[in-house]
Amino acid sequence: MTGRLKRAARAQGGFTLIELLVSIVFIGMLFAAFSMVFTSALHHNDEVMEESTIQAEVRAAIDTLAGELRQAYTGDDLVAPIESIGATGLTFVSPDRASPFHLRRISYRVNGGTLERAVAVSTDTDGPPWSIPALGEWAPIVRSVANSTLFTYLDASGTVTANPAAVHTVAVTISVTTTTSGGRDFTYQTNVTLRTPMP
Question: Are 80 and 165 in contact (CB under 8 A)?
Fold first, then answer.
């Protein structure tokens, strides 16, 4: 009778304690692996989103700056449209798109790793001499700027110049650093030739 009871107990197919412990450890390892993959995917998603946002900001900033700079003009062929230049700053005048147009003084600068822009619009439309008030507030355009030389100025012969009146082309280089991808840099460049360069 004892043998029959033992065979009947084995036939019920239960799990032993060791089998349960092995199963729990195996399931725990699966959950840990899934958790690591999920965390990695979330981190990668954050990197992609930050890179995409920075790229959009920089492209928009370069397009705006290039468009305004390409149209730089004072209304007087004897007066240079670029007022001041520097490695991290640039000030010039450019007409708006109204008719008759107002002249705008536009300034870009890097302040604490952020590219900023300020504008002042002339109060008159009747041509030189223009009456332009002080620059307005500085608005942030691109954050996380990493390079210390954004602007390089070239004269008509392609030589670097420090004379605002001799600027023919402005080379713009913006490097930005991401925070989520280990400080990886992305660099964007363009050359802008003035529409009405000084002779």
Answer: yes
Alpha carbons 111 and 158: distance in angstroms, whole number: 28
**Do residues 187 and 54 touch, judged by C-beta distance below 8 A?**
no
Closest Cα to residue 146, out of 56, 46, 58?
Answer: 58
d(C-alpha 114, C-alpha 142), whole Å: 6
Mean pLDDT of 13-36: 82
Task: For residue range 71-83, list pLDDT tens digits in order.
Answer: 888 767 667 889 9
Report the alpha-carbon distance of residue 154 to residue 160 in Å, rounded: 4
Domain boundaries, the chain: 45-193
Strand order across the 114-121 sheet: 82-85, 89-95, 103-111, 114-121, 139-142
Question: Could you give the CA distance from residue 86 to residue 149 in angstroms, rounded to a whole number?
Answer: 9
DSSP state of 141: E
